[in-house]
User: Fold this.
Amino acid sequence: MISKAIIRYSTALYQAAEQDKKLDIIAEDSINLIGLIKSSKDLHLFFISPVIKHEKKLKIVGTLFKEKISQLSFEFIKLLIVHNREGMILDILESFLDLKDDSEGKVKASVKTAVQFDDSETKKIKEKIDGFTGKNSIADFAEDKSLIGGFTIQVKDVVLDASIKRQLENLRNRFKGINIK
Assistant:
């Protein structure tokens, strides 16, 4: 569940980027920052640490990012630190990217399959997602052997579970409910 603070900050970043006509630049910065924070445990801990003083965080952020990201992105990170919201940076940047995708008629979908789909199958699944959402889906396909067969699709908070694993769980639960005398 996305908090109100995450929505407020990501919306503010989106509106500022849109006003400055820098949506694509801020999106690129966001993607790079998300990747960097997720790949560096130390950087992730730096942002979420309540022990490191704001002044020190601002100085370190200046050293790390001032010349590497746009001025708007840099000022936004500083704003998060000043308002004690830097621990939410990943969620805020991901929410910003979702807002941008939504405004462009795009939606991200996560598809997990028991076996690797070929191109025609992935195309059919993508078309079904597009029809369901009414948007152009950006589908991420991944193999998950635990599904036994079938697939799951997640679009935002909606999950379609068409896996054999889930069907077997449902069947088991139905049998548990039957009282045999």
User: Anything to note?
Assistant: The chain has a mean pLDDT of 91. The longest strand covers residues 106-113. The chain has two domains: 4-102, 105-176. The two ends are 44 Å apart (CA to CA).
